[in-house]
Design brief:
The chain is an alpha/beta fold. The chain folds into two domains: 260 residues, Aconitase, domain 3; 149 residues, Aconitase, domain 3. It has a five-stranded parallel beta sheet with strand order 4-3-2-5-6. Strands 16-15-14-17-18 form a five-stranded parallel beta sheet. Strand 8, helix 6 and strand 9 form a beta-alpha-beta unit. The relative contact order is 0.14.
């Protein structure tokens, strides 16, 4: 029997000819990632180990993006600890405010993560990089510390689930966000627990890289160990101009073994909205009903890329945000920010009555730049809508794609872009 793409990558990085699901292996890693919430804990653990240097100054990446620009004294101290560690160890890839971005948007953009890599990050949405055909997964701060010291980490090889999307064209206003929400609504938040979620089929091949990043980003919301899409021409075109080192392409064998195969027809999928308080509580936009909102958030590591901003601008152009709604927009990186400004998107946003922020994870985790008060409701292009995720525990977060979030900001309630055309 052949191997899946996930098994092939793990086999190569563990020095084996093949690996089997359930097998415990020790893997060499290509990138170890931390942010301003998780890295300080890992740094303290690293110092306990007693090693003098990180295993490779080019492969340890630190990005202050969650509470930055620093919102208070504690977050400033967290960022300072990262900054001083990066200077002490001469880290190549430390990104300061003004040059940084939301980590899972920034690393692919900078060519730091590549096809065939094994990547660990002390952030659950590290699974984003599977869109490039890499094995990428979130770990705890202790594992991050061990990775920084040794360049290795242990895994149990996950079983794989193949998700096949049939159809050459998505319905109007449907995006990668809707495909992954549809999956999560179908199998539940633990439906792929510790499984490799492999996305394939004609509809996936027609997706842009931005759409693929969104899908891989939310694999963790179904409990997945990783999400992954085999590289194709779209992938290669994306990485060729960015790659700073060699990379390797892997694809699943035709006779690879899967725990199960789940097939969908995209002609049946319309824009999805995840109701509180779990990403699995999805409904098609046609069945949402009347849900008034107080805030709309467009951005994050899930939907803060250029395609997302262009879609939002297309809906908002020439229209105004509802007087009872706050619309906050977060580009994923400084490069995206600059490109959006060059294309005139910010003028569209500001004319519509939106606030545009520097890249930050701020509101996604209820950190800053868009906190909800008691009883308030928000629609957001972020990835989680747990109790209290964006502020008060009695607030509510609804998840959607950027087009729905923009249309809802105009309507003052959750609605379809078709309603404002």
């Amino acid at each position: 029997m052949g191997m899946t793409i996930t098994e092939k990558i793990l086999a190569v990085h563990s020095g084996k000819k093949r690996v089997e699901p359930g097998e415990l292996i020790n893997c060499k890693v290509d990138i170890v990632l931390g942010n301003d919430i998780t890295a300080p804990v890992a740094i303290k653990e690293f110092e306990k180990i007693g090693v003098r240097d990180v295993f490779d100054k080019d492969k340890v990446v630190l990005i202050p993006d969650h509470f930055t620009p620093n919102k208070d004294i504690k977050s400033a101290e967290q960022a300072k600890m990262m900054r001083e560690f990066a200077r002490k160890h001469g880290l190549t890839n430390y990104f300061e405010v003004g040059r940084m971005g939301i980590e899972h948007c920034l690393l692919p953009e900078q060519g730091i993560v590549l096809p065939g890599d094994v990547i660990i990050g002390a952030d659950s949405h590290t699974c984003t990089y599977g869109a490039l055909g890499a094995f990428s997964t979130g770990v705890g701060s202790t594992d991050m510390a061990a990775g920084m010291a040794s360049g290795e980490v242990w895994f149990k090889v996950p079983e794989s689930i193949k998700f096949v999307f049939h159809g050459d064209r998505l319905n109007e206003w449907v995006s990668g966000k809707d495909l992954i929400l549809y999956i999560i609504g179908d199998i539940g938040v633990d439906g792929a627990l510790y499984k490799a979620m492999e996305f394939t089929g004609p509809a996936i091949q027609s997706l842009s890289m931005d759409g693929r990043f969104t899908m891989a980003n939310m694999a963790i919301e179904a409990g997945g160990k990783n999400g992954i899409i085999a590289p194709d021409r779209t992938t290669i075109e994306y990485v060729e101009s960015r790659a700073k080192r060699p990379y390797q392409i892997y694809r699943s064998d035709d006779d690879a073994g899967y725990e199960r195969v789940i097939e969908y027809d995209v002609s049946n999928i319309e824009p999805q909205v995840a109701f509180p308080h779990l990403p699995e509580n999805t409904k098609p936009i046609s069945q949402v009903g009347t849900v008034k909102i107080d805030q709309s958030v467009i951005g994050s590591c899930t939907n803060g890329r250029m395609e997302d901003l262009r879609v939002a601008a297309g809906v908002l152009r020439g229209r105004r945000v509802h007087p009872d709604v706050r619309l906050v927009i977060f580009p994923g990186t400084q490069a995206i920010y600059k490109q959006a400004m060059k294309e005139g998107l910010f003028e569209i946003f500001v004319d519509a009555g939106a606030a545009v922020s520097t890249p930050t994870c701020g509101p996604c985790l209820g950190g800053h730049m868009g906190i909800l008060a008691k009883g308030e409701k928000a629609i957001s292009t972020t990835n989680r809508n747990f109790v209290g995720r964006m502020g008060h525990p009695e607030s509510e977060v609804y998840l959607s794609n950027p087009a729905v979030a923009a249309a809802s900001a105009i309507l003052g309630r959750i609605g379809s872009p078709k309603e404002v055309e």
